[in-house]
């Protein structure tokens, strides 16, 4: 061995002997754990935010949340200290936390959402995703490997040797098993009261913001309970048979009407009318066509179950007639609960001889649509791979190309068609540089950044309006009777913490202080029902409606019989048009502060039926 090699080897041995073999006091031991926990927290927050300064700004701005995240990491280290009995436990926890933080970072980069507890059960989706992104995350993977190597080397050469006796390890064990469940299931413990007092809440409607504001670890913990669904009280085969006997329908019992129109439903990404915002002026009407047909055809608004994202939950409610109000906040029904065939609208229409087609110009694996759509009864699913010649409009395939795809499908198909299309062009966020030019300018007493966000968004809805006009122009000339339902999935995500909505005065308070009126404003998106043939049966004013009532409403207008779910929701819709966690609206359009006693049976039976179909034994189908 050379002189330099011997010198380095001696230096390492001295460090090894001085640090690893050094006996430390209990106080020193606790300081080690406290310091390492702080370093771990800073590391994962820097990874999440891609900025050291942003991590420190978060600590300053949300110090209480910083302390809670710090305590969570202390509990994690306490558990591993119990398992190992040595300070090397921090090596294990450090590696796990780094892998967790980088995986979260990669998911947010590509899908926009942070890591959820249920993602660990979606190995198949990760398997589908990796081949598509491996080439783009090579640097991240190298960084991950480098950090892990550094942590292991630090553990070998710099962490003192110190073993805990069984008594302190048992103390750590009891601390862990008591406090960790209290934090994880905080909604059922005094921690919930403390969180409310400190205005800490799970920002489930924008999960990316939930992770940034509440901290990576706490944001994740807040979603753990969302992975668990407890059977409703009274669930049994006899209870389901009671519900079925009251609403049972046989789709083949009556002859369907002579006219079987093509049915098209377009769920337009973030479609909303920005001209309702106060205090701002638009240089032109971004929705001239939509405004004109809304005056001529049945129109109204849906009360979306989500804000800014989670489109899959809106389509779940629409297509199945089931409600996400009974599911854990922040959960995605497609990814977590749809594992068996359901009596959804596509299945029902297939029984009437319809060909059922889904169109979405994005990846088929997104929200597990590739596996869910067959379970709902779709014959075909055209995704981003079926748009080979489409040009991106901004960051995504444009709405006009979706209209062209619908027309292509109709022009070559035989027999009645059911087409369900989701657009992608106007997906948020809305950076100023998305388009080279925004044709409609926005002015008002708002920040320059808000003006840019709003102009980018307005460009998108203007294109949506043009695509709608293009589609109906074709349908007007078609000899086939067609009915088209067009609406948005949710309000657009216009900046952090409702930036544009707050600056314009559309809302003036945090969500936990929203009035019923605020909730309706922030969840209502426009809806229109257009057709190219005369039908006096269709009511002109739809009003405000929950998405899970839409299929029952549409079937009634088309004089088509439903099934067990749609007959049940039709029964409810005869009395209530909106049934949600925060808002209930009766048939006369009046908001109801609390669910009236006479409707509590509806609510209870609805959850029993939904549980049976999603989680139970599907007695309703037997």
Could you list some keywords that capture this structure?
single chain; about 625 residues; alpha/beta; eight-stranded mixed beta sheet; three-stranded antiparallel beta sheet; 24 helices; about 10% strand; globular
Number of strands: 15
Fraction in beta strands: 5-15%
The residue fraction in helices comes out at: 40-55%
Reading side by side through the largest sheet, how are the strands ordered? 5-4-8-1-10-11-3-12
Rg from Cα = 28 Å
Q: Please report the number of helical segments.
A: 24
The low-confidence runs, each spanning 5 or more residues with pLDDT under 50, are: none
Distance from N terminus to C terminus (CA atoms, Å) equals: 79 Å
Task: Report on this structure.
By secondary structure, the chain is of the alpha/beta class. 50% of the residues lie in helices and 10% in strands. The protein is built from 24 helices and 15 strands. The strands form four sheets. An eight-stranded mixed β-sheet has the order 5-4-8-1-10-11-3-12, sandwiched between helices. A three-stranded antiparallel β-sheet has the order 13-14-15, with no helix packed on it. The chain has a two-stranded antiparallel ribbon with strand order 2-9. A hairpin with a 4-residue loop joins strand 13 and strand 14. Helix 4 (63-84) packs across helix 5. It starts with a helix and ends in an 8-residue tail after the last helix.
């Amino acid at each position: 061995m050379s002189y330099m090699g011997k010198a380095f080897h001696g230096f390492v041995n001295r460090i090894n002997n001085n640090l690893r073999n050094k006996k430390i006091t209990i106080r020193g031991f606790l300081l080690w754990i406290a310091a390492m926990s702080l370093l771990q927290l800073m590391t994962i927050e820097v990874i999440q935010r891609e900025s050291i300064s942003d991590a420190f700004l978060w600590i300053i701005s949300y110090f209480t949340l910083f302390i809670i995240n710090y305590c969570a990491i202390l509990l994690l280290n306490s558990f591993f200290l119990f398992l190992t009995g040595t300070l090397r436990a921090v090596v294990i926890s450090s590696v796990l936390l780094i892998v967790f933080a980088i995986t979260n970072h990669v998911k947010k980069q590509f899908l926009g959402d942070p890591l959820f507890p249920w993602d660990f059960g979606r190995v198949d989706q990760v398997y589908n995703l990796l081949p598509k992104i491996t080439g783009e995350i090579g640097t991240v993977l190298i960084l991950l490997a480098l950090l892990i190597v550094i942590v292991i080397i630090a553990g070998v050469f710099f962490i003192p040797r110190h073993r805990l006796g069984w008594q302190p390890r048992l103390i750590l064990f009891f601390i862990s098993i008591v406090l960790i469940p209290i934090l994880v299931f905080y909604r059922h413990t005094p921690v919930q009261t403390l969180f409310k007092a400190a205005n800490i809440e799970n920002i489930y409607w924008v999960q990316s913001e939930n992770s940034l504001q509440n901290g990576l670890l706490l944001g994740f913990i807040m979603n753990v309970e969302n992975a668990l669904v407890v059977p409703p009280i009274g669930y049994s085969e006899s209870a389901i048979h009671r519900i079925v006997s009251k609403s049972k329908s046989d789709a083949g019992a009556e002859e369907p009407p002579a006219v079987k129109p093509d049915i098209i439903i377009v769920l337009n990404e973030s479609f909303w009318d920005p001209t309702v915002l106060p205090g701002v002026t638009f240089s032109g009407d971004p929705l001239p066509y939509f405004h004109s047909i809304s005056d001529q055809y049945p129109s109204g608004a849906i009360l979306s179950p989500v804000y800014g994202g989670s489109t899959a939950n809106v389509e779940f409610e629409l297509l199945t007639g089931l409600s996400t109000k009974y599911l854990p906040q922040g959960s995605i029904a497609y990814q977590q609960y749809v594992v068996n065939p359901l009596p959804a609208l596509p299945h029902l229409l297939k029984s009437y001889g319809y060909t059922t087609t889904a169109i979405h110009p994005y990846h088929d694996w997104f929200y597990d649509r590739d596996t869910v759509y067959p379970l709902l009864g779709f014959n075909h699913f055209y995704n981003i791979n079926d748009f080979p010649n489409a040009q991106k409009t901004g960051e995504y395939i444009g709405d006009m190309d979706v209209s062209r795809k619908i027309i292509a499908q109709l022009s070559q198909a035989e027999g009645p068609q059911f087409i369900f299309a989701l657009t992608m062009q106007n997906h948020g966020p809305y950076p100023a540089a998305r388009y080279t030019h925004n044709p409609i300018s926005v002015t008002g007493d708002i920040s320059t950044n808000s003006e840019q966000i709003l102009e980018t968004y307005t460009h998108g809805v203007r294109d949506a309006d043009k695509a709608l006009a293009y589609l109906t122009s074709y349908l007007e000339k078609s000899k086939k009777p067609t009915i088209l339902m067009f609406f948005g999935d949710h309000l657009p995500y216009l900046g952090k913490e409702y930036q544009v909505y707050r600056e314009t005065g559309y809302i003036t308070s945090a969500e936990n202080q929203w009035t019923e009126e605020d909730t309706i404003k922030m969840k209502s998106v426009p809806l229109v029902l257009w057709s190219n043939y005369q039908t006096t049966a269709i009511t002109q004013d739809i009003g405000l409606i929950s998405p899970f009532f839409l299929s029952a409403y549409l079937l009634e207008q088309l004089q088509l019989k439903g099934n067990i779910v749609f007959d049940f929701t039709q029964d409810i819709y005869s009395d209530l048009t909106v049934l949600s966690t925060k808002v209930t609206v009766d048939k006369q359009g009046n908001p109801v502060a609390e669910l009236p006693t006479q409707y509590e049976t509806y609510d209870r039976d609805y959850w029993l039926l939904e549980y049976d179909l999603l989680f139970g034994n599907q007695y309703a189908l037997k």
